[in-house]
Amino acid sequence: MKILFSTALLLMYWGSNVSAQAVGFDQMVLYANSDRPLKTSIWYPTEEKMPSVRIADNMAFLGTDVVRVAQPSTGIFPVVIISHGYRGNWRNQNWLATKLAQDGYVVAALDHPGTTSFDHSPKSAAQWWQRPKDLSRLLDWLLDSSMLRTAINDDVTAIGHSLGGWTVMALAGAQFDRDQLKQECIAMPNPRTCGLMPELGLDKPQVGELAVSLKNSLKDQRIKRVISLDLGLARSLSRDSLRKLETPTLILAAGVDIGNLPQAEESGFLAQYIPKTKHEYRVYSDAAHFSFMQLCKSGAIVLIEEEEEGAGIVCKDGGKRSREDLHQAIYQDILSFLRQS
């Protein structure tokens, strides 16, 4: 959708308290793997307030005010890396990245080749193990080569929405189990998750998968904690690996079922098997799956539906609270988890 995923860089500032820092912003492409270049965005605290630009803004969605290529604030900051959902992009959690940078975090996100709104390459999409490896590559760059490497510490958090939640769980040590997923999809066939198995390379072994399978884990030891935002495909993560998970995990779920995707079978699956001492689990009864994405402008649903029927669901929430109010609650839970863990 042109409106939904516009590349326009202009936006309106999303509410923050007066003591929050301004946000610097930059973009680059990581070419360490020439077969899989990673388009990367980075947000960070800065003392510069001008000139500001608006990013991730278009006719349907609100963005945020940032200062392009600003000088970072003096200090050492913790790191957050973010993984978008299936066929999403870095803009989807721009609201969250901006808020975190205002509160003193360096945040980086990227577009996963094959499963981003700008790249539907079947070959890239089917290499399911590449998504978590993308984030490890991003972290390599941040810590070793980026312009912020001297301004960040080793306190690293990974956050992911939807398929991004599945991605960060792999970084925490959860392991893909194809046989388990097939059994689960026979017992509870779900077109929104099970239907993606062929496209995501989950239905049968893929070229290049063996090397990953032999290592038996995509865990990144540098990740101190993970946050899952209404993840999908949780039932593909082996129960045994979840039982052994040591990485502190915050599981946030949407209570409104948008159709054949009940959170109890996804986020609830994680909560069932991850040790109680290693996870926190919260369900927002009036949030839907896309409530974790950016704010929608007035009239956005009609505008999006004109381009693709049914796509307006991305701007629909539970009705009790606005998406802005939901974002406030979600952000406070995330910030509390980051600070206490």
Key attributes of the depicted protein:
alpha/beta; Rossmann fold; 10-stranded mixed beta sheet; disordered N terminus
User: Any guess at the CATH architecture?
Assistant: 3-Layer(aba) Sandwich
CATH H level, superfamily name: Alpha/Beta hydrolase fold, catalytic domain
Q: What number of structural domains do the residues give? A: 1
- In total, how many beta strands? 10
Please, what is the average pLDDT? 92
What is the chain-wise order of helices and strands? EEEEEHEHHEHHHEHEHEHH
List low-confidence stretches: 1-18
In spatial order, strands of the major sheet run: 3-4-1-2-6-5-7-8-9-10
The CATH topology comes to Rossmann fold
Number of helices: 10
Structural class label: alpha/beta
| Range of strand content | 15-25%
Output the CATH class name.
Answer: Alpha Beta
Rg, rounded, reads: 19 Å
Describe the biggest sheet?
10 strands, mixed
Name the overall outline: globular
- Please give the alpha-carbon distance between the first and last residues: 39 Å
Percent in helix: 25-40%
